[in-house]
C-alpha cells in the first residue's frame, strides 16, 4: 500500500477516502492543479477533496465546499472536471458537499497559522498604494478600480479596499454583486477581474446612508486588514474618501508602507486642493508615489481638443509636492475626459480591459505599466518597499 499522507492534509481535513491505488494517486496529483479561486491554494492542500473513487474507468470526485452556497461552486466544479479529463477515458463526475464546522475551524487555523495579524505591517512585501484626492467627483474611484484591474491583468496578485465609506462605488465599478463568504471568522473577499475586493458597501443595503464617525471608520478599515484572507498580495490599493479626513490617518497607522497616489483634475482650484491632500503626507510620513491628472482635454471628432476643466493641474500638483516634500513626485499621466470611460464604469467593465484602445484606456494602461512591480510569486525576489 502506498503512503499518501503527503498528498493531503491530516486531522479533520483528511479525505474520507484516502488515495491508495496508482490511478487514485494520479488523479489526486491532477487535482493539485485546481486552485480554489478565493483562497488561491490547491484544493488538495485545503482539505477540499473528500474522495476520488474509480468505478471501472469512470471517476467520481467529492469536493467539500467551505460553505453551503459557495459563490465559486460552479467554477470549482468545472475546474475539477477539466483537471481530470486527461486522467481517464471514462466519465468524470464531480459531487459537491460542504465542510463540517470542525473542518472549517481547522481550515481557518491552517490559513491563519503562519500569518501576522496585520499582513500589511512594516515587514510586508506588498506594495500598498492609498489613492487620495482633495475633493470628490474627480474620478478617484474610477481610476483606482481601473489600476487594480490593469495590474491584475499583468499577472500581479492584487487587492482593493474601498475605504471611501461614505461614497463607496467600487463594487458597482467592478460589477461585484457577490457578498464576501466567511470561513468561521475569516472573510473571503469576492474576486472581480482577478482583483480581491472589499467594500463596506458589501455589508449594507444599497440605499442605506452611512453616518459613521472616525473611530468606527478606523475599526472598519482595521477589520478589512486583519479579518480578510488576502493571501500573498503583490499590490494593495486603497480607495480613500476625498479630502484629508480620519481615514487617511488611519491608513497611515494601519498600513505603514503605504504610498499615496494623488488624483486631481486639470483646473487650478482643484489642483490647489489636491496639493493640500498630498501635503498631508508630511504629517503621516507617507511618500507620494505620484500624481495622476484626470478629466484632461477631450478630443473632439475633428481632432481638436476641448479643455473642459482647463489644463496643467496635474503638473502643478507634481511641481508643488516636489517642492514641498523632500522628494521627486512624478506626474504619472493625464487621463482625458472620455465618454467611453464613463460608459464602461456604469456597466461595471473597466475600460483598461474592455476599451484599451480608447483614449482613457490607453492613458490608464501607461500608468499601470509604471506602477507594475514584479510578481512576487514568480520572481521570489523581494519587492522594493520603502518603509518610513
Ligand atoms: N476621464 C473621465 N472621463 C469621463 N468620465 C469620467 C472620467 N473619470 C471619471 N468619470 C466619471 O465621473 C464620475 C465621478 O467619478 P468617481 O466616482 O470615480 O469619482 P470620485 O473621485 O471617486 O468621487 P467620490 O470620491 O466623491 O466618490 C463618474 O460618473 C465617472 O464615470
UniProtKB/TrEMBL annotation:
Residues 28-94 form the MIP18 family-like domain. InterPro entries: FSCA_dom_sf, MIP18-like, Mrp-like_CS, Mrp/NBP35_ATP-bd, NUBPL-like, P-loop_NTPase, YlxH/NBP35. It comes from the Bacteria. ATP binds at residues 134-141. The keyword Cytoplasm does not apply. Pfam families: FeS_assembly_P, ParA. Keywords: ATP-binding, Hydrolase, Iron, Iron-sulfur, Metal-binding, Nucleotide-binding. GO terms for molecular function: ATP binding. Belongs to the Mrp/NBP35 ATP-binding proteins family. Homodimer. Binds and transfers iron-sulfur (Fe-S) clusters to target apoproteins. Can hydrolyze ATP. PANTHER family: IRON-SULFUR PROTEIN NUBPL. This is Iron-sulfur cluster carrier protein. It comes from Enteractinococcus fodinae.
